[in-house]
Amino acid sequence: MNSTPCQQTLLEHYVKKILAAPVYELAVRTPLQVAPALSAALGNQVLLKREDLQPTFSFKIRGAYNKLVQLSDEQKARGVITASAGNHAQGVALAALELGIAATIVMPCKTPELKVLGVRSRAAEVVLHGQSFPFALAHALQLAEETGRTFVSPFDDPDVIAGQGTVAMEILRQHQGPLDAIFVPVGGGGLIAGIAAYVKYLRPEVRIIGVESEHSACLAAALSAGTRVVLPSVGTFADGVAVAQIGAYGFEVCRFCVDEVITVSNDELCAAIKNIYDDTRSITEPSGALAVAGIKKYVAQTRAAGQTLIAIDSGANINFDSLRHVAERAALNGAPA
Length: 337
Known about the structure:
about 15% strand; about 325 residues
């Protein structure tokens, strides 16, 4: 990575914020574990960063808590509002409950019931609005302006990005040997920005590869255009990444720290969910399986062999009644790698 002094200063800024982020007051250090069957099938060592094992079953608790804990007393007293397809919502709800902050969460009408119940069970108010995340986001911003509550972005905020970046801090501590690439699911870009900033500052030789649903590939579109663009529509099968525009703060990092972006289909996600289940006996949500689907596509395209590849298994909030569809599509598409 050939970065400018200004870019290096930006990375150093994020690294300092990541190292100082007090996320472990609520989040947990998740294991980095080998996926033996997937590794054997692909001819590479595949490691899974198990963010599905967080208290809210998603990495989002990291960024949400890091943002809320740093609010002023006045902001905490007024309360917070956010928009989310579900995982950030649960992170904000739990963090707010822990810190005694009133929270309102705007979620798309098609949000999986499991995620809605997860928010309500943590004492947050749920407002269902719009058919996808962009509509929920616009409504949440309007409500924040009307009520004076602090809006907590699910991805477009330096404190949120720093919280997510603690994933990379753990990875580099857990795996200090050869490492070729880290595959990161991309929605609004908070997770990949935090990971990329930390890794490229400390281990610039490690490739950072974003993986997007082909139905919401806003980072790929932005990198291609050289500027942030708004997708005309987004698909919601991988609801956790159904975002129409990459975040501004995240794109500032991604434009020079992300080596490649891979897009995958819904069927490839279903097959990856089965791959993860076969190795871990855990059931990942579609957006949580993006990185594994990306590794499979990367190996098929590049014929990589003998490499060490890490996939962020980012979440496990999937409705039970969705599993039949996932199993059927996985079977049709040959889930074994």
